[in-house]
Amino acid sequence: MLTDPGRVPLSRRAWIGDGSRGASVASDGTIDWYCAGGLTTAPDLWRLLDDSGAALRVGPVRDGGSARRHLPPAAQSYRPGTNVLETVMEGAAGRRVSVVDVLPWPGPGLDAPGGVVRLVRALSGPVDIEVEVLPGPRRSGTVAPSGAGLVVGPIEVRAGASFAPAPLGRDTERWRAVLRLDAGEETVVTVGRRDLSLPATPEGAHRAVADTESAWRSWLAGLVYSGPYRAAVERAALSVRILTGPGGAPHAAGTSSLTRRVGSERTADDRWVRLRDVARAAQVLAAVGLAEDGEAAERWLREALTTAHLPWPGWFDPGGQPVPEADEWPFDGWRRSGPVRHGRPPLAPDAGLIGDVVAAVGSTRTGPFGRPDDAGPLSAAWAALAAATDRAADDWRQPDPGRWEIDRPLRMYVAG
Question: Is-above-0.85 flag for pTM?
Answer without folding.
Answer: yes
